[in-house]
ABC transporter permease
Amino acid sequence: MFSYYFKLGVRSLRRNPALTALMVLTLAIGVAASVSTLTILHVMSSNPIPHKSERLFVPRIDNGLLETFKPHEDDRFDPQSTYPDAMNFLRDGHGERRTVLYGVSAPLEPVRKDLPVMSVTGLALTRDFFAMMDVPFLHGQPWSDADERAGAEVVVLSRDLAEKLFGADNPVGKRIRLMDKQFQVVGVRKPWRPVPKFYKLIGGGAFTQEDEIMIPFATAIRLEANPEGSISCQGKTEPGWQGFLRSECTWLQVFFETRTAAGRAELQEYLDNYADAQRRLGRLKRKQPNQLFDVMQWLEHRKVVGNDSRLAAWLAFGFLLLCLVNTVGLLLAKFSVRASEVGIRRALGASRKEIFRQFLTETAVVGLAGGLLGLLLAWGALALIRLQSEQLRIVAHMDWQMLGATFLLALGAAMLAGLLPTWRACQVTPAIQLKSQ
């Protein structure tokens, strides 16, 4: 019977084309608005590394000055690390892996004469980063432990930058002039852009383009590569690069990886013991609780999904509700003119249950039509959103989950809107309708 009712539903679309088109368009606009907003919210709040997000941790200790301490603002201290703390974290070796990183920017002189000098951005980081973050390689591999210890002038390029500089050739082993030094290319990454960009939220942004270069952290320190990003300094800082490194300035991002999620307790104990040892040396006078954030907690702490985004999603669903109310009115008008048809079917033996199934199936057909049109409108809306800014271009993409959600939302919304009109259609009294004919 379902296939028969479905055919009736398709035929009913042609009975009153203007009314049907208005219903489909109303439903499609509401679905497109809500799905477009929900898609952006879905991408922004997604887990960028789901298989190990509970094993990657950002540490936070408060090195602020005691005289500027305000208890009601205890959650505002910088979640970055100082250079001495970061080096201690690396040296102590806790966790399965650990990495320190910061943003860098440098002039690059291409070997090709037809290309001008360009400015490239990227990261200075330790070798463990590649394994911790599952960075995929197209050519080559990360630099070696020996290169890292020596602060060697080696670099990993993004695929886009490698193709710009060397075309389709494998550039591993070739050299580029970076920071007025000859850097050897040891690897080329495949396209890799976790969304959100959880490993560089501070001073970088959650939805920025992928990093063009990656160089050893020790190399960047040796070449005095100025940090590109946020720097927060406590107290006086000695002049010069070495004075900056010895200072209480927080500017480095640290990540730990544990073997299992249960390793969090052990890592927390280490962090507490480390902070106690530093207090005995005269540091960390505020005695604030030391914190560890896993990836999703880190995204929440940095408010990657702001209240504005959530409010926009609620407003979009409010607009969808308004569209559903209008659809209910249109369905009531459509079904009311078919009262005589219902009366005849009831007189011939059709039960109210069968009438309900028929009209609800017809409503579902309207929902499917509205879903198809809503999908096209959503694609168009997302395309327009992508034109607004670089960050929106990254997040305004529909995946298979949202594609399925579009049809389910349209179908569910149409059937919800059709419950009252369908129930009203079932209440038709056969005798009264037959008598009026």
